[in-house]
Design a protein that fits this description.
The structure holds 2 protein chains of 2 kinds. In chain A, 0% of the residues lie in helices and 16% in strands. Chain A is mainly β. In chain A, a hairpin with a 2-residue loop joins strand 2 (23-24) and strand 3 (27-28). The radius of gyration of chain A is 15 Å and the shape is flat. Chain B has helices at residues 22-37, 66-74, 78-94, 109-119, 124-136, 145-153, 159-166, 172-185, 208-224, and strands at residues 11-17, 44-50, 64-65, 104-105, 190-191, 193-196, 200-203. Chain B starts with 10 loop residues before the first strand and ends in a 6-residue tail after the last helix. The model of chain B has no long low-confidence stretch (mean pLDDT 92). Classes of the chains: A mainly beta, B alpha+beta.
Chain lengths: 51, 230
Amino acid sequence: MSDGQERAQDETWGLDTEPITLVHSGEVLGSIFGMLDPATISSCGADGVCD
Amino acid sequence: MAEKATAPDPITIDIWTDVVCPWCYVGEARLQEAIRAEGLEDVVQIQAHSFELDPSAPKMANAESNIDHLVKKLGRSEAEVRGMEEQIKDLAAEIDMPYETERPMANTRAIHRLVQAAAAKGQGNELFRTLQGAYFAGELDVFNEDVLVAEAAKVGVSEDEARAALEESSELDEAVQTDIHRARQLGVTGVPFMLFDQKYAAPGALPLDAYRSALRTLVNMQSEGGDVDE
């Protein structure tokens, strides 16, 4: 899916130890994405409903 | 050969996604545009991960119209569903992406297994992107097994391997489940879900400028050797 390179799957992930910055409700805590209006974020749920 | 000392560290982006997810299509296209705009094609490394959009969707052999599927699923009128599709089409057009509002819809688990087969050959992203793009352009019926096998062959997955991957009993289903399990660990409830440098998560399709901001920030962080203050 990338214009860049596909990398091998790895098992490090670091998800248990690294903080994750979540973008939600328009309140961004030190986010790298800048301040976002929640109305500009759209997604499809696991029930197949997109909004 | 030793790596050049000046080579920047890669920016990794893990994306949980589904071939038939409209917002994944739009969000990932915006991300690609952001990568190009920032000149980071050789720096960003993307890895697609399986996320089954709608496990309750009919099996591939019983694919139905996405419009009919959503009318039944949402309990809304056909006009409302078509209106929703037209809104997404307008947003796709903003980034010059074709968007067919009437498409087949079915369960995508087998497609995820096939992409995992391609991923084992380092071609998962390529196959995913081909199928996703052709699906939303209305160019391919991704629920036709012969179509899937033919597309997989183009990235080096043999017909036997592809047909085996499409079977429910395929061991590749475990790889799909592993991706989904990781998504659950992250609290993912919808897609696209993008994880930048294994730390910064973006649930949903964000505006183009948000992706550009993130990429610029990560490049700056590399040069400064630190994280974003929280």
